[in-house]
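Dear H.,

Thanks for agreeing to be a second pair of eyes. The structure we're designing against is below in token form, covering all 152 positions.
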């Protein structure tokens, strides 16, 4: 649905091409995102990348050192970033829930009578009573999964 991810690396610069339209250029101290098509999907992907980059900057985590973190900390970081992505996409319609059990981190999106429940730790949709909302949530989960996968 979103096309392939093409990765090229030259020296200290890594370039990613998404959807044949969104180009990301990564260096040790910067992220440049460019897109030309005026489409909702391209803009959503670009917005999502900006959110993830800001999350990295805010948390003062280095992408190259992420692989050295404990798996549990890495999962907590992914859950946090996915929740931020959902908050940006759905605003007040999104609510994050941290369960009593360790590792249970759910959230829900409620728009009118439509409701989706997401398990961020497993990165999957648990339940949804609306096909249009289901498609949107699954698309955002797919984008989030690609954006939180280590580059190195």
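And this is the sequence the design step returned. I haven't edited it by hand at all.
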């Amino acid at each position: 649905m979103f096309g392939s991810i093409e990765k090229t690396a030259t020296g200290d610069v890594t370039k990613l091409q998404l959807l044949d339209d969104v180009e990301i250029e990564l260096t040790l101290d910067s992220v440049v995102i460019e897109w030309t098509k005026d489409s909702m999907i391209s803009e959503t992907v670009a917005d999502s990348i900006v959110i993830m980059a800001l999350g990295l900057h805010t948390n003062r985590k280095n992408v190259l050192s992420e692989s050295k973190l404990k798996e549990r900390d890495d999962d907590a970081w992914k859950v946090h970033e996915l929740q931020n992505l959902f908050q940006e996409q759905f605003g007040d319609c999104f609510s994050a829930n941290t369960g009593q059990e360790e590792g249970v981190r759910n959230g829900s999106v409620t728009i009118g009578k439509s409701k989706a429940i997401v398990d961020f730790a497993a990165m999957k949709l648990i339940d949804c009573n609306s096909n249009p909302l289901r498609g949107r949530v699954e698309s955002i989960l797919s984008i989030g999964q690609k954006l939180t996968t280590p580059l190195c």
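Two observations from my side: The chain has three helices and eight strands. The first strand starts at residue 5 and ends at 10.

Warmly,
E.
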